[in-house]
């Protein structure tokens, strides 16, 4: 599918039910472009991540341009400068990381920990995603990343990047959704935004 075809399908998805079916079919179902003709490798890649975090392989997805072959937001093609965007959907794992971040927030409240204005801006950005049921560790301030998630999250995804896993010579980055409802809501809103921009005239 081309970007033009994709946008045509979006224009045809003119209500919330159609948009939900659209994301289920095109964003979450099927083999990603980066694994074209390598279905077994895609399973092994997902299973590698699932085993690390104690979730089911079916709770691990590739999204974004690595899935489609293009970014429908940026209008750019997937290439070797693109990241592999992974999404994990698991409530138990979400709560485990959420608890750690909550503890860190209490330390901030009591001024046992401090962040500068730049980090605070990043943290506020993180919270905007968190209230939507999406935890994006890349949006945490550096001090949070080092203290809470470096060995558990960032070191692992670094270890499967750049020809160190089935996906090939790409950087692998990941986010964590609390459940499928939040996942679908976020991406449905994303498609709704694109629909509105394509049909505003």
Report on this model:
- With 201 residues, this protein is an alpha+beta fold.
- The protein has one domain.
- The protein is built from 8 helices and 4 strands.
- The two termini are 25 Å apart.
- The model has no long low-confidence stretch (mean pLDDT 92).
Short précis:
InterPro entries: NT_sf. The chain has 201 residues and is α+β, with helices and mostly antiparallel strands.
Per-chain topology:
Elements lengths: L2 H10 L3 H13 L10 H15 L6 E4 L1 H4 L15 E6 L1 H19 L7 H14 L3 E2 L6 H18 L12 E6 L2 H20 L2
Parallel strand pairs: 2-4
Antiparallel strand pairs: 1-2, 3-4
Helix pairs in contact: 2-8
Helix content: 55-70%
Main structural class = alpha+beta
Q: How many beta strands in the DSSP annotation?
A: 4
Question: How many domain modules?
Answer: 1
Which residue ranges are poorly predicted, with pLDDT under 50 across at least 5 consecutive positions?
Answer: none
Categorize the overall geometry.
globular
Strand order of the largest sheet: 1-2-4-3
Strand portion: 5-15%
**N-C termini distance:** 25 Å
Largest sheet: 4 strands, mixed
| Count of separate DSSP helical elements | 8
Radius of gyration, whole Å? 18 Å
SSE series: HHHEHEHHEHEH
Write down the overall mean pLDDT.
92
InterPro entries: NT_sf
Short key terms for the protein model shown above:
201 residues; alpha+beta; NT_sf
């Amino acid at each position: 599918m081309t970007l033009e075809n994709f946008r045509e399908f979006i224009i045809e998805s003119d209500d919330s039910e159609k948009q939900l079916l659209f994301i289920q079919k095109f964003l979450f179902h099927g083999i990603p472009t980066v694994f074209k003709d390598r279905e077994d490798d895609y399973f092994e890649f997902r299973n590698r991540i699932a085993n690390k975090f104690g979730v089911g392989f079916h709770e691990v997805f590739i999204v974004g341009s690595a899935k489609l072959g293009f970014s429908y937001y940026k209008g750019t093609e997937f290439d070797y400068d693109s990241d592999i965007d992974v999404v994990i959907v698991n409530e138990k794992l979400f709560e485990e990381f959420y608890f750690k971040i909550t503890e860190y927030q209490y330390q901030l409240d009591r001024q046992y920990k401090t962040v500068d204005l730049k980090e605070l801006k990043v943290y506020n950005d993180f919270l905007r995603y968190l209230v939507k049921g999406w935890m994006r560790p890349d949006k945490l301030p550096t001090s949070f990343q080092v203290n809470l998630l470096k060995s558990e999250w960032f070191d692992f995804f670094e270890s499967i990047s750049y020809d160190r896993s089935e996906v090939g010579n790409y950087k692998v980055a990941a986010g964590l959704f609390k459940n499928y409802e939040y996942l679908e809501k976020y991406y449905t809103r994303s498609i709704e935004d694109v629909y509105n921009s394509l049909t505003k005239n």
